[in-house]
Request: fold
Amino acid sequence: MIDSTIYNCNVLTLPKIHNRAGNITALNNSVDLPFDINRVYYIYDIPGGEMRGGHAHKELQQLIIAVSGSFDITLDDGHNRKTVSLNRSYYGLHIVSGIWRDLSNFSSGAICLVIASHRYDASDYIRDYQEFLKHKGR
Ligand code: T46
Reply:
């Protein structure tokens, strides 16, 4: 079990296969990720000035990639905060469980790809910040 703090949420450099016609990044289960993949989704057509997130997950781990454009992710473990800017297709932010996140500053045309450790489960979300602090024992 990984500690549930922002210091355990790191930007991973993903494998990149380059040739003159462009790049490929392939993510292999159990090889390139710190968890097994159970779901992939992506967020796109994000209107200017909008924010996403505003919640934490009890169990879910994720790898978040700006496959196009850029955006910022602010992570909060109930004690400390940090903001990570993603702007390259070969960087992925690993978010461990139990971290509040806010996504903002989406560039025009940004696409946010999320690789997730579990299938969708509404009961895994904590959408109230005070409840999140209680969950963290703060
Ligand atoms: C996160 C950020 C980056 C589903 O039905 N299935 C799904 O797999 C997902 C992800 C969402 N939904 C439904 C649930 C809500 O009615 O889509 C609606 C919006 O979902 P949510 O509020 O989770 O959207 P975001 O963009 O705020 O958050 C999502 C992830 O849930 C979250 O874990 O980190 O993307």
Q: What stands out?
A: The chain has a mean pLDDT of 97. The CA atoms of residues 7 and 84 lie 12 Å apart. The pocket of dTDP-4-keto-6-deoxyglucose is lined by residues 39, 41, 43, 52-53, 57, 62, 64, 101, 103, 112, 114, 120 (CB under 6 Å). The chain is about 5% helix and 40% strand.
